[in-house]
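Researcher: I'd like a structural prediction for the single chain below. Treat it as a standalone chain; there are no partners to consider.
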Amino acid sequence: MNELNQPATILVIDDEIIVRQSICYQLEDLGFIVLEAKDGEQGIALIKEIHIDLVLTDLRMPGMNGLDVIQQSKLIRPNLLIIVISGAGHIGDAVEAMRLGAYDYLVKPVKSLDVLNQVILKALERTKQLKKKQNEALHLEHNVRAETQEQEKEFLGSVINSLADPLFVKDEQHRWIVLNDAFCQMMGKQRSELLGKSDYDLFSQSQADAYWAHDDKIFNSSDVDITEEELKTEDGVRTVLTSKLSFMNPTTDRHNLVGTIRDVTEQKIAEQALRRTQKMEAIGQLTGGIAHDFNNILGIIFNALIAMFLP
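Model: Treating it as a single chain, here is the predicted structure.
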């Protein structure tokens, strides 16, 4: 019986129908579910299609022989145990069968049903142990992978949260799925208030329409998009420079949009002030130049008048 208390399924492969059926009857009497195959090819086909707990195979068969069955079975299911039951009785065959991965070797005819039962029960217990070890290894691998992914996630989170510029990631439904601390601070909201939301949840209809249409173009492009925009926040309207790029998310096989935002409001104010200063300086220089030229003209006229009135 297997770990679910269900009868184990045993496949018997033998080209001699009388021998095959005799073994099948004995196994059925012992309470096993029994499948039979008349040759190696049919046996391998059943191994591919049906879950089988144990294989009993003859060694000398036309076409695919018992050694071939062992090799092919191990390629399909490496942990499938195979017991060779052969009437040949050559020690070389037994050695070769064991070398290829056979679990045990019995000589036909098997005189005692108890002997057959003990060998089968021992093999099934070994199968159970192998399956347990395999499950433990898979469980350990899963835990290690999950822990590694969690560490990578924490590391990535610390990296993006260390960025001074706001960063966000949107899915194809334009919902925010990743946000850094700077983005939440800029919006004046908690991360939980923003994740899963779209522009329509925070901005006016017209502004959200504009953001949505612009992001749609980026989703369908492979180029980096850099745009200067006005963004309404709790601190008022800010001038920002957004950099956005569409990428394929390897975990979902769906497109995502990643963007960074740089607040250039103060820079814009400084630029405007600088332009005003430069404009005033230019006007001053122009006025000074005109005054200088005017003074020169006045000087010439004055000198001419003086010359006229001199005796």
